[in-house]
């Protein structure tokens, strides 16, 4: 329902599950490890603090170099021209917020995603401050991966689940780090829970 109503996503790509932080960590981890040999992660100084903290810990865990584009000049906006200066064959992941939480700046989703993909990297978008406020059109914008919450412009209440989006185009490339219920292929037929 979230995918269809708010994300512009075809079936089989969206899960309403966990928290935004857990989903962000899992998708960023999966994106980095799906690009073996690449050691650079790119984000920006104006990104939501939680995302930056998670990236710092993840880069420490995986031995990656975190590069933060300085966009604290009041615009809080990463243009395609600026991002292209940072893209090399060592970049595994680029991640930005769709809408910056302080300034309200809206990033160019299709162009930035395409630039990262052309460089061989994956892009994780955080749409927490965008979902419910703008049309995201994740499928038609060519998005790889995206996370967001339901409690801001989704108008849900405390304890409401977050969501994650994984494009069908790249699902087979990824292995999420927490091997729980939704991360396993059925290896056997399940019997009755109670006998």
Low-confidence stretches: 186-195
Radius of gyration: 17 Å
Q: What is the structural class?
A: alpha/beta
Subunit organisation of the chains: single chain
CA(first)-CA(last) distance? 35 Å
Tell me how many strands there are: 7
Strand order of the largest sheet: 1-7-6-5-4-2-3
- Mean pLDDT across every amino acid position: 90
> Number of helical segments?
5
| N-to-C series of helices and strands | HEHEHEHEHEEE
Shape summary: globular
Helix content: 25-40%
> Beta-sheet strand percentage?
15-25%
Largest sheet, in brief, is: 7 strands, mixed
Question: Can you describe what's shown?
Answer:
This protein has 195 residues and is of the alpha/beta class. The protein has 5 helices and 7 strands, in the order αβαβαβαβαβββ. The protein has helices spanning 2-7, 20-33, 49-62, 80-84, 109-118, and strands spanning 14-16, 40-44, 65-69, 91-97, 122-126, 145-148, 163-166. It has a 7-stranded mixed sheet, sandwiched between helices. Helix 2 (20-33) packs parallel to helix 3 (49-62).
């Amino acid at each position: 329902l979230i995918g269809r109503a708010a994300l512009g996503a075809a079936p089989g790509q969206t899960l309403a599950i966990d928290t935004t932080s857990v989903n962000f960590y899992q998708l960023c981890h999966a994106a980095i490890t799906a690009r073996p040999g690449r050691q650079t992660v790119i984000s920006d100084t104006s990104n939501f603090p939680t995302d930056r903290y998670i990236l710092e810990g993840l880069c420490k865990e995986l031995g990656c170099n975190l590069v933060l584009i300085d966009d604290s000049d009041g615009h809080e906006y990463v243009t395609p021209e600026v991002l292209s200066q940072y893209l090399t064959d060592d970049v595994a992941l680029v991640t930005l917020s769709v809408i910056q939480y302080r300034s309200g700046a809206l990033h160019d989703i299709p162009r930035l995603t395409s630039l990262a993909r052309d460089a061989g990297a994956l892009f994780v978008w955080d749409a927490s401050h965008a979902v419910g406020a703008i049309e995201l059109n994740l499928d038609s914008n060519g998005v790889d991966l995206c996370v967001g919450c339901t409690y801001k412009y989704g108008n849900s209440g405390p304890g409401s689940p977050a969501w994650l989006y994984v494009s069908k185009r790249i699902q087979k490339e990824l292995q999420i780090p927490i091997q729980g219920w939704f991360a396993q292929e059925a290896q056997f037929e399940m019997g009755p829970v109670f006998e």
